[in-house]
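Dear colleague,

As promised, here are the two records you asked about, laid out in our usual form so they can be pasted straight into your sheet.

NAME FIELD: protein one
SEQUENCE, THEN STRUCTURE:
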Amino acid sequence: MTTYLKKHILQIGLLIVIFGTFFYNKELLGGLIFLIIGCGFLYAGFYIRSSNSRIQANGIKTQAKIIDYFEEESEDADGYSSTYYYPIVRFTDKNGIETTQKLNSSANPKKINQPIEIIYLKKDNEYEIMINSDFWKTYFPIIFIIIGFLFSGIGIIWLINEI
C-alpha cells in the first residue's frame, strides 16, 4: 500500500493544496479534511481495483509457495507499533523461470510452505502479483471505496451546512 501512496503522493499533495487554498476557512476546515481523506480513499480504492482488473484480465494464474515472510515494523504518531508480515513466494512462470518475490499484501505468518494461487503479470523484468482470492480481487478495493464515499459524504454535508 505504501508503494501506491509513494507513486501518487504528488497528486494527493496537489489536491490538498488546491482544496486548502480554495476553501481556507476555520468553519470549513473539518469538512474539508473529511473530503480530502475521502478523496484519498476513493483514489486508492479505484486505483487498486483498476490494477487488480488489469492483472486479472491479462495475467496468468499459477500456484506459488510461501517460502518466508518479510517482517516490517510500523509505528504510528502515538508511538504504537504494529508488525506486518509480507509473504515471500516462489513460483515458476509460463517460460519455466523460477521466481522469488515479496508480495505487497500482508498475511498470516503461519502459512509457510503452503501453496497459494496467484495471478502474475510480467512487465519488462518485473512481476506484478496478486493473490487469487475474492478478498484481494474484490472486497479489498471495495472497502477503500466505501470508506471514501463515507468520508466524502460527511465532508460534503459538513461543507454544505457551513456555507
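NAME FIELD: protein two
SEQUENCE, THEN STRUCTURE:
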Amino acid sequence: MKAFFLALTLCILTSSCHSQPASSEERGQTPVITPIIDIKEIANQTQEDLEHIIGLTSSFQPLNSEELAVCKNCQKYIYKNGLVRIVYINDMADWITVNPPDSTPVQHALPLLGLPATPPDTKSDSLSRWKGLHGLREINVFTRPDRTIDYMLVKVLTP
C-alpha cells in the first residue's frame, strides 16, 4: 500500500513539473509592447496640455549647447521619472527624447512610441532613422553595439 501511495505521489509531482510554455517570441508571435508614450498624442502640444496627457513634470532641466543653438528661450522638462524629456520650442513639444528600459531591442522602438513597427529609412550600426513618419519630422533611434536601444529622439517640427 505504501508503494502505491509513493508511486501516486511521484506521478503527481512529476506531472506538475512541466517546463514553462514558450514565450510569444519563441512561438513566432509578435510580443505585445506597451507604449511608453503615444507620440502622435503629445507631439506639438503645450506644456499645459501635456500635464493632462502624461502627467506633471518630474523636473526642469537646463538646455544643452545644441538645444541652445536652436532656441535660447526654449525649455526642457522631464516626465515619467526620467523616461521622457521634452524640449518646448515656441511653447510646443518639439524635441522628445525617450529612454526605454535597458535591453530593449531596436525592433521595439516604434511600438514604444505608440506607432506600428515599420522598417527605417536609413540604418547603421548605431542609428535607425525614419523621416516624415506619421507627420513627424524624424525619429532617431540610437542603439548600443548589442542592438538594444540607448535612447530615441523624435523631432516634431524643428531640425
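A couple of things worth noting about protein two: The beta strands are 59-61, 75-79, 84-89, 92-98, 122-123, 127-131, 138-143, 149-155. The chain has a mean pLDDT of 85.

Best,
R.
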